[in-house]
Write a structure and sequence with these properties.
single chain, Immunoglobulin-like, mainly beta, 5-stranded mixed beta sheet, 4-stranded antiparallel beta sheet, 173 residues
């Protein structure tokens, strides 16, 4: 008789590989769709998360994104777009490090494979002037043999720690 781990679908076993455990709000798993309002395509996901839940000025934040393919098909023209990166003031921020464009555009992703991307940022005094969030937003698109071009969006959220104040906490709804 198989254990619970062995009975889990491949997609769940891919998700379980991410450490440390995060609440769903801090480690969102976004699906891929042919267009807004369409049904989610099973087995293909975009994950985007921050390495810590909150930061203070001067802290290095590491963001990691994965495009996961738990299907039996190869995906082509896999592209990750940096949509926006903002603080509570609405300032457009720039990553300290990010993958080269050649790693983010036109990739191929084989069956049961994943692409992994790293970004980093150092929180500034301006970022922590008031309680709020740093929001790193990514978009991705790719082509499947059966469904054609698919799209996804996913945000990573980091609470900013203001001197003398508690960082924001997230509650699952």
């Amino acid at each position: 008789m198989p254990s619970d781990d062995e009975a889990a679908p491949k997609e769940a076993s891919i998700r379980a590989a991410f450490e440390p455990p995060r609440t769903p709000e801090l480690c969102p798993l976004a699906g891929f769709f042919a267009h807004r309002g369409a049904t989610e395509v099973a087995g293909i996901s975009l994950v985007h998360m921050a390495g810590q839940e909150s930061v203070a000025a001067g802290d290095l934040i590491t963001f990691t994104a994965w495009i996961l393919n738990a299907t039996a098909e190869a995906l082509t023209d896999v592209t990750l777009h940096l949509h926006s990166f903002t603080n509570e003031h609405g300032d457009q921020l720039g990553y300290r490090t990010e993958p080269p464009a050649s790693e983010m555009i036109g990739r191929t992703l084989g069956p049961r494979q994943a692409l992994k991307y790293h970004f980093s940022y150092v929180a500034t005094e301006r970022d922590v002037e008031e309680p709020g969030l740093l929001i790193s937003a990514l978009k991705a698109n790719l082509v499947t043999p059966r469904q054609g071009r698919l799209f996804s969006e996913c945000d990573a959220l980091v609470s900013v720690a203001v001197s003398g104040a508690q960082p924001l906490t997230f509650q699952h709804s």
